[in-house]
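Appendix B. Worked example

We walk through a single record from start to finish. Start with the input: the chain for HNH domain-containing protein, marine sediment metagenome, length 102.
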Amino acid sequence: MTEEYEKCPICNRDMIPGKSLDDHHLIPRTFKGKDQITLHKVCHRKLHSCITEREMLHHYHTVERLTEHEEIQKFVKWIKKKDPEFYSGSKETKGRKSKRRR
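Next comes the structure step. The output line below is what the pipeline stores for this chain.
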């Protein structure tokens, strides 16, 4: 992660260095993606709970497209009222559940 933090590109809340931040590959590592953005862990989990890696590869590979997703827009309306270090887990997509390491 980079050391300079401003606003989360998904929810536009302040980013505070620490456990509440995570890196997101715009094109999933599964598909050899290298470009990353830093965002809140809760925002990162939400992205992966409602968008599959294949959808990210083919359509949702920019911040602009990610924030156009209807579920993400609803999430942003809800999360913007929360503290910048707030974290609550999200359900994983069916595709991610089957790939989770045990």
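Two observations about the output. The chain has one domain: 1-89. The chain has a mean pLDDT of 87.
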